[in-house]
Amino acid sequence: MKLELNKVTKKYKEKVALHDISCTFTNGVYGLLGPNGAGKTTLLRILADVLKPTNGTITFNEQNIYKLDYKYRDLLGYLPQDCGFYPNFTAHRYLQYIAALKGLPKQQVEQKIDEMLAVVHLTPYKKVKIRKFSGGMKQRLGIAQSLLNDPKLLLLDEPTAGLDPKERIRFRNLISELAQERIILLSTHITTDIEAIASEIIILKDGQLLEQNKPDKLLEKLQQQVWHVSLPATQLNELYKRHIVGHIHQKGNDIEARVIATKQPSDDAILQTPRLEDIYLYYFGDVMDKQEVNNDDQT
Prior knowledge:
The chain is an alpha/beta fold. It is built from eleven helices and 14 strands. The chain has two domains: 212 residues, P-loop containing nucleotide triphosphate hydrolases (Rossmann fold), CATH 3.40.50; 79 residues, no CATH class. A hairpin with a 2-residue loop joins β4 and β5. The termini are far apart.
């Protein structure tokens, strides 16, 4: 299977949400990585045929998706950020409703519902109304509905929001199992969600595609640039001014920090093995600073 985007652009009046996005996807897991406002959700909504692009073409196995029409939509599984659950439906009734919308053969519906509830560990809550579900349970139900029609193209927008650590590990394992026969696009700003399972990572910023590459190739960019630094707490602000600073840990009057710098930031700085969260900081550290300023302005 092959999904191709050629110069896909989406404009909202004066705002350009996506600008000339061109990329190719085959079987596997692709992580869409970027901060809020990067264009991840817009891209997924276009691929889910919820939005139409302003310009550009999208093909699936070399056929235009809009000419494929319902044949393309039959291949889709989509988990939006907000599923829009009916609170008085039970989990079972909700999946029956989704199965009807997706046109699943009636003789298969109950078996598929039971399979999906088992996959997301909601079988004991089959007859419980959704209004009684926790946020994590609703998210698991959303994952179940996205898989109900055995999709060949699975689009997941922040799928681990609300999941506890154990559920997130289960989810990642499930996605790894599904990926061999599917194209899976997973949008997130949480690097650990994709670090272990993504075959490639797509980095979006301000609606533009900065990079599409394998995780190990991305990490090569930061070889010899990630450092462990120890310094007095009074020098932390100066460190922020000079370098990209990740995790910090206070030990008495001192600070231990993970720093991204092209040159050794101090004489006792020790090189570290790059991680995907370092890549995130490398590309989006300035965006995070702006968001923090905006948040401060609102409080």
